Amino acid sequence: MHNHSLTANLQILLACPFLILFVVYLMAVVKSNRKKKKWPIYRISMWSIGIFSALLAVIGPIADQANTKFSAHMISHVLLGMLAPLLMALGAPMSLFLRTISVAKARKVTAFLSSSPLHVIQHPIIASLLNIGGLWILYTTDLLSMMHENSLLYVLVHIHIFLAGYVFTVSIIYIDPTFHRKSYVYRTIVFLFALAGHAILSKYIYVNFPSGVSKTEAELGSMIMYYGGDTVEVGLISILFYQWFKKTRPTFKNGKEGFTISTNKKFTVAGTDIEEVKRLNASSGMSYREINEWFARQQSKAHASTKKR
């Protein structure tokens, strides 16, 4: 295990990025509010609570006990790898960032966000493998005990837990601009498999204790992982289903001919979703024409791919 002074230094090292992110976010809010519509308070609240959750996991009493108690380590895992990523994603940091920079820079950023490498990383299946697969490696090998003996490994594991959790979260629910969007059905199916992988791992730990962990601590830690993980996952799936319902719900209109039912979607002649164009336009800084052309190209590619099949 790490000695006290070394552990304190590692905690400070891990906490600093989150403190910086918190300050930068607030500065971006101030800058954005000067020129554009006020940034929602609930976004700021979600980001702040998410940062606080991450800090609880990497510095302070929980982080101290996580070095010797597996149950405390698992609380840290739920906070850092599940709750903090969800809350911080709800803060819509990329949308805020795009509001604070010039249109020219925003176009370059959106071009980067739509690049193939990011598409691969943010694909729900890849994100699930990075997140759940990483946990299987951590808890079914000697990596858990090794990270407490190696400072660099200790930091890298914590960074991976957070980043993998965040990428997985934003691959399931779309809060910020997402250019390679998957259907709600597709994301739901992948999420259910990921949820099952997480639950099976927690049950596996209950019976097969990680190296250096006592039976009592392993059982307690696995229950924290199972029930704590379920709590966060219920929140994630609720948001996904709410977005799905909001996107597809019918509207009722009372006209001269009586009640009629229609959807909220509005399309151009080319089949472009007008509301989606407006949403991306507001977030990305690109012009309506540029966003519209981008959508048309994406739909043409999809149509061509369908024809080949």
Report on this structure:
- With 309 residues, the chain is mainly α.
- The protein has 2 domains: 4-248, no CATH class; 251-308, no CATH class.
- 76% of the residues lie in helices and 4% in strands.
- It has helices spanning 4-35, 41-58, 61-66, 70-90, 93-100, 103-113, 116-121, 124-140, 143-147, 151-172, 184-207, 215-248, 274-284, 288-308, and strands at residues 250-255, 258-263.
- Strands 1-2 form a two-stranded antiparallel ribbon.
- 30% of the residues are buried.
Q: What topology emerges from the helices and strands here?
A:
Elements: H1 4-35, H2 41-58, H3 61-66, H4 70-90, H5 93-100, H6 103-113, H7 116-121, H8 124-140, H9 143-147, H10 151-172, H11 184-207, H12 215-248, E1 250-255, E2 258-263, H13 274-284, H14 288-308
Antiparallel strand pairs: 1-2
Helix pairs in contact: 1-2, 1-5, 1-10, 2-4, 4-10, 4-12, 8-10, 8-11, 11-12, 13-14
The whole-angstrom Rg is 22 Å
The helicity comes to over 70%
* Silhouette: globular
Assembly type of the chains comes to single chain
N-to-C terminal Cα separation, in Å? 57 Å
Helix-strand topology string: HHHHHHHHHHHHEEHH
Low-confidence stretches: 267-272
Average of per-residue pLDDT values:
83
Which structural class is indicated by helix and strand composition?
mainly alpha
The main sheet orders its strands as 1-2
Residue fraction in strands:
under 5%
H/I helix tally = 14
- Specify the biggest β-sheet: 2 strands, antiparallel
Question: How many structural domains are formed by the residues?
Answer: 2
Count the strands? 2
